[in-house]
Amino acid sequence: MRLPHTSLTRGMVLLSLLTPASALYAQNATQSTPTAPIPTSATQPYKIGDWTISGSLRGRAEYWDWFETPGFNDTDIFGGTLLRLGAMKQSKNTDITLEIAQPSLYSLPANSVAPAPAGQLGQGSTYRAVNGGQDASLFIKTASLRFKNLGNPANSLRLGRFEFVDGLEVLPKDPSLAWLKRARIADRLIGNFGFTHVQRSFDGAQFSHNNPRGNLTMFLGQPTEGVFQLNGMGRVKDVYAFYGAYTKPLKSADARLFYIRYHDGRGLTPVDNRPAALRATDTGDIDINNFGANYIKTFDTKGGKADFLAWGSYQTGSWGSQSHRANALALEAGYQPKNMKWKPWFRAGYFNGSGDNTPEVALGGRHETFFQMLPTPRVYARFPFYNLMNNNDIFVQAIAKPNAKTTLRADIHRVRLSDAADLWYLGGGAFNDGVFGYQGRPTAGQKGLANVFELSLDYNLNKNTTLGLFAAHASGGNAVNAAYPAGNKANYFFLELNHKF
Hints:
By secondary structure, the protein is mostly beta strands. Helix content is 8%, strand content 47%. It has an 18-stranded antiparallel β-barrel. A hairpin with a 7-residue loop joins strand 13 and strand 14 (345-353). The two termini are 25 Å apart. Residues 1-42 have low confidence and may be disordered.
């Protein structure tokens, strides 16, 4: 469905998106809380016969001040809304879920795609490049049938179109462990790309066996179109992911072993650090095996609560004519002092996703860049001008709750490339048949990407409506200078309202 183009001034975009009538709820973007397929309203649910009706509405005004690119629009304000309406029918043995999504975009920037290496100048530029003059659509977001009690009350099978996020098969009862799973474990490799105005679903099947001793989940799915492309109805052809995981709840801890098989047979030119002419001749299948594990634990101490997180991945397979070997590791720790008024939580962490140190000049060789597959990138790059590929990130963060309605968060990141011979990568995976889904910027053999400073505020206006504010500044390093020699500073700000009903 294509709706007429809407022309709004920048000021009108801000005004229209920040009124309560335009408030939306889907994913709390500032806290990276994954979206449920059918959001649960805190008020009495609407009922039509045996069907429960619910929905969400989210609106966001975004200000992007991209790295300096003379002659092009590298500073812009645009907006987006996402309406989701769903119905669920539940019985003893089955659940039926239906949901439609209606995304709209407002005042997208013109003249914001520069020649290489500068490329697209922020996400507004990406929306414009993918959608042209289209500014709204309507499509089926979810249509699934879930069978329960399949020979055993612990078994269930879901078929159809639905959202899937790796790592969220089981949420611990401990609120600190649950936050760590949502915000620091989930979405690294498979996610719903919940921050964008279109998002992602999967067509496929999910089997779960869940009991107090542990959870076994198996998932096979193809990503839908969407993410930045307004038309989210279709399916990305010849891209699929198989996921298998066992999650074990432990005392004040949670552990998971997982395996992912990723396949991309679209025959597109891959994005990597080889010369463009060579990459264009190497359009063979990408097949990756990902073996991973994670462990999170909290410790009660005399002065408060400490936590530890470890996540690791090892990848094998093929990248066209190349063999693929890559790895990634995350280590984090935090502390919540007792009896402090704002309930602070101080955390620090380290992440390294491998890069490729040898740009091949002939077919064959080895590809060593850690590949994120189909993630939600903004969970781990809240100013989303980078992702976890060829990435080395050391960060500190502080979270505080001045009152029951307000959450504050501050992050500082020192982001470098793992290997200077590789690229600076952006993006979050396949979203249509003709676009690879990742971009790469040359770095002139430099590792320093940026120092990033981030602040966010989340405020619950009422039980169903939240306000989110986010501001970030990036001071680019020598790797950014290689693509943007005119200026290596960038800023990002958004104001978002979410409403569920």
